[in-house]
Design brief:
Blueprint lengths: L4 H8 L4 E3 L9 H23 L3 H18 L12 H17 L5 H17 L20 E2 L2 E2 L1 E3 L8 H4 L7 H6 L2
Parallel strand pairs: 1-4
Antiparallel strand pairs: 2-3
Helix pairs in contact: 2-4, 3-5
């Protein structure tokens, strides 16, 4: 059954939160699969080497280590017990690749990906895809209807970089709302 735009506008007035996933919603699925995910695969080793001593990376490594430890009970290869980056980084690269191959949605992986994308957006290694460049946008979609503004959120661990996904962030109604 097809719904009309006013049906959606009425529905939005009855909710407080609209949950969006970036894949296919605010950006094309091809951008995520052809740009964002390959970036992680290509750059994870460099990223870990360059950020190894930062608290953010230490936290990501600790979370991945805990996840792999839990998964090891199910037969997944455990990480080396060494804390040496020369030993641990190649094992982490392989682990992240295996998680991505399995389309894992574990928070430890999503957080690391989000941190990598955030850094890449800030240093220009990745340029965000604007809503208008994908032929979409959210003008008139009911995100703000009759004075009622719905809060926008996402389920992904990549939340810190979502405002950067749309270049420039202030250019569209959706990113203006999401960045508040």
């Amino acid at each position: 059954m097809k719904r009309r735009q006013e049906d959606f506008a009425n529905l939005v007035n009855e909710v407080d939160i609209i949950m969006l996933d970036i894949e296919g919603t605010t950006t094309s699925i091809s951008f995520v699969k052809e740009e964002l995910f390959p970036y992680v695969r290509q750059e994870i080793s460099n990223y870990l080497k360059e950020t190894w001593d930062t608290q953010l990376t230490k936290d990501d490594v600790a979370a991945l280590t805990r996840q792999v430890s839990e998964d090891a009970r199910a037969g997944v290869e455990p990480l080396p017990t060494s804390h040496s980056p020369e030993v641990l980084i190649p094992a982490l690269v392989a682990t992240v690749a295996a998680m991505m191959d399995a389309d894992s949605k574990v928070p430890a992986l999503k957080a690391l990906q989000g941190h990598m994308w955030h850094r890449a957006y800030l240093n220009g290694a990745i340029t965000g895809q604007s809503e208008s460049s994908r032929g979409g946008g959210y003008e008139g979609s009911g995100v703000s209807e009759g004075g009622h503004s719905a809060s926008l959120t996402t389920r992904s661990g990549a939340l810190p970089c979502h405002p950067l996904l749309h270049s420039p962030p202030e250019s569209t109604p959706l990113t203006q709302q999401a960045c508040k």
